């Protein structure tokens, strides 16, 4: 059975919603940060830190895309957008899905990406194991 994590944009988040292009741009910026870190260390870290290519399918252009692993340790991570109602308010979110054939490496990288996005966007992160991390300022 597939597992899901959610990055929810709640009160206090830096954005109220995100488009697929903006999400892709955040992932590309993350890959660029890893490349700069690797450059400082003298190691090509961008391939190890982000071992995926961003792929889209024609039938899912505005709803989701997936990250395709470049070696046998990583297979797929699916990223999509959604919206839910909570207390008569629409809450937009990013959903990360691990398909049934995802590897342990996929789960680790998906957690890493979700934590990075949650911290950067000050969002509420619902992890694959059901725990919640609050990066948004709360009273």
Write the layout of secondary structure elements.
Blueprint: E1 3-8, H1 20-41, H2 45-49, E2 52-55, E3 64-69, E4 76-86, E5 89-98, H3 104-121, E6 124-126, E7 132-134
Antiparallel strand pairs: 1-5, 1-6, 2-3, 3-4, 4-5, 6-7
Termini distance?
A: 37 Å
Poorly predicted regions: none
Order of strands across the main sheet: 2-3-4-5-1-6-7
Using only C-alpha atoms, the radius of gyration works out to 15 Å
Label the structural class.
Answer: alpha+beta
Order of helices and strands: EHHEEEEHEE
- Could you describe the largest sheet, including whether it forms a barrel? 7 strands, antiparallel
Which outline best applies?
globular
Question: What is the tally of helical segments?
Answer: 3
Q: What number is the mean pLDDT?
A: 91
Quaternary form: single chain
In total, the number of strands is 7
β content, as a range? 25-35%
What share of the residues lie within helices? Answer: 25-40%
Describe this structure in words.
The structure is a single chain. The protein has 139 residues and is α+β, with helices and mostly antiparallel strands. 32% of the residues lie in helices and 31% in strands. It has helices at 20-41, 45-49, 104-121; strands at residues 3-8, 52-55, 64-69, 76-86, 89-98, 124-126, 132-134. Strands 2-3-4-5-1-6-7 form a 7-stranded antiparallel beta sheet, with helices on one face. It is globular. The N and C termini lie far apart (37 Å). The mean pLDDT is 91.
What is this entry, summarized?
The protein has three helices and seven strands; from the N terminus they run E-H-H-E-E-E-E-H-E-E. With 139 residues, the chain is of the alpha+beta class.
